Give the backbone structure.
Amino acid sequence: MRLTVLLTLVLTSSLFAHGPGKENDFAGRRVLFIGIDGCRADALVAAMERGLAPQLKTLSESERGLLTRQFYAGGEKDTPTHQPTISGPGWSSLLTGVWMDKHGVRDNRFIGGRFQSHAHFMRHIKEAKPTAFCASFADWPPIHDFIADGSRVNSQEFLDVKFTCAPDAARHFVDNPEKDIEIRDEALKTLHTQNPDSMFVYFGQVDEFGHGAIDSRASFSPDSTLYLNAISHVDSHVGELLRAMRARPKFAEEDWLVLITTDHGGKGNGHGGDSDNERNIWLIAHGQKLPKDKLMKEPTPQTALVPMIYEHLGIP
Ligand SMILES: [Zn+2]
């Protein structure tokens, strides 16, 4: 079965695309948000310690960078915000800044999603600055089909680039690593040829390895070499994206906030529950004005990521 590859380019705003450097709506401030599905925190750290994730390690240890393991998924236990540690609710929270009691997504079917009232953050960027350039790349189609498209008002597109490619479920997602390469390459193209203000880039293979979908010997564990190798592959993609970002003309004038995180951890070959290995996730951030002490010391919900983006761009 061949897969749908969909590239939507809405040219109206790109005709007015701003230039590099400070020639944008945000005085040079820009956001690169990278999502690595199902990347358990202790496995990420194990990969870093074994030299398998040099790009993420270097970024998090650089002067303006950080890695916190105080980040958490799953909402607040014993409250209406409590949500399963799975991708539907998790990415909904990461992309809208609210938990399930507001976004309404309980599982990966997205029934009851309320993205009209609790929209994808890029819709709000576009509402604040209609000429902003927003780009999203994902090889898990619901990111676009439900969260982004569900956030559109009267079908009006707010993404200037929306690149979707789906791994083949019938072949147990065995081609997910290849789809991640397609995602990387399209995102690189945008960093090279456009002047994005906000980018979201999603990689799916780490989760599929955790599930044992691609190779039945793998699991969500720091002891799974196959799982760590998947993290390593995505680490190299992250490195390419960072290299392209830094190679931009007038990069020195640009003020990029880089955020890298996951939607949930896992245990064995699954996730969805309330164990520490599923709920306790991580955030790597790099930027000029990060609240480093706070992020390192205080437990921070994954819903706090969108407000960080708005604050960086100066969006109320
Ligand atoms: Zn999963």
In short: The domain at 5-313 is CATH 3.40.720.10 (Alkaline Phosphatase, subunit A). Residues 1-5, 8-16 have pLDDT under 50 and may be disordered.
